[in-house]
Structure formats: C-alpha cells, structure tokens
Amino acid sequence: MNGSVVAVAASPTHSFTKPVQTSIRLIAGLGVEGDAHAGPTVMHRHARAKNPEKPNLRQVHLIAQETLKELGAQGFEVYPGAIGENITTQGIALLDLPAGTRLRIGDEAVVEITGLRSPCKLIEGFQEGLMYALLDKTPDGRVIRKAGVMGIVIEGGVIRAGDGIAVELPPAPHRRLEVV
Hints:
By secondary structure, this protein is an alpha+beta fold. It has one domain (2-168): Beta Barrel (M1 Pyruvate Kinase, Domain 3), CATH 2.40.33. The chain contains four helices and 13 strands. The protein has helices at 45-50, 65-73, 121-126, 130-133, and strands at 2-9, 20-21, 23-27, 31-32, 60-64, 87-90, 102-105, 109-116, 135-137, 143-145, 149-155, 157-160, 164-168. A seven-stranded mixed β-barrel has the order 1-6-5-11-8-7-13. A three-stranded antiparallel sheet has the order 4-3-12, with no helix packed on it. It starts with a strand and ends in a 12-residue tail after the last strand.
C-alpha cells in the first residue's frame, strides 16, 4: 500500500488552521520544525493542562485528501491545512492502519502512527456541523472518528507535496487505532 503527499502545513501558533507550506522539516522525537505542536512532551493545550509531562504522541497530524473530498461533497469548505493537519495524503486508508504502522515519506522521513485524532469543539467552531460530519458509527454502535491520525517522528527529513509514502505495517497481531 503506497500513497503520496498532497500538501504540508505548519503553524508556530495554536491557531486552528495551518497554512500550507512549500515544505516542512520533520525532526525525530519532536515533530514538525516550527509547529506549535512540536515537542517531546504533549503540546496540545487541553492535554498539556492535564499532564504536561505526558509523552507527545501527537507530533504530526495526517488526514487523507479523500476525507476532505468527502466533506466537500457534504458542503463543507475544507482544504489542506484547514482542520489543523500537517500532512494531507492521498491513496492510503489512514483510518484503517493499525497502531505502530510506519510511513516512509519522501527520501528520509519516517512517521509512526500512534492513534486517532478525536474531533473536538474547535472543529465545530471552524464550521458548524463539521465535528459531527467527522464522526460516524458502525452497525454495532462503535464510534468512528474520521478527523485523521496522529504520529511521532522516528526519522527526520524534509517533505513536500508530491513525495511518495510507503506503508510498513507492524508485526501481527495488529492493534486498532485508539484516540491519543
């Protein structure tokens, strides 16, 4: 399973939308250079208030272009970086990957998927109804979160739109993604 990078985005502030960049640099153990969520410990404001020493499992946020297109078809104005993601991908079913999957991005970078991003009230504030559009349920009642996946940087490097992404699944048994 392989895909590609559609766009990359970063912001030095905790603003909701991240502006698209020509390239971003991933730094091992920290995240996206210059991004407000980079750091060895949790940088998400709500989670940091609870436990500032917790390891940062949310160094990089990825979302599939296919998800953005699905939302656009529902009438939402979304685009790369709009809901705070650092990397917009195509051709990979991100939400179906198991925890521990490694994504080799471009020539150097490796991101390990740690879990799901849970849609929050900030998404609802961005566009009314968007938070609920990013939630669904399976027939047995399990909640499906479609706001993308989170990861940590294993190997750093510069990435840009057009870079290839190679998927490396972890050894079985696979663990389903949970919210981080």
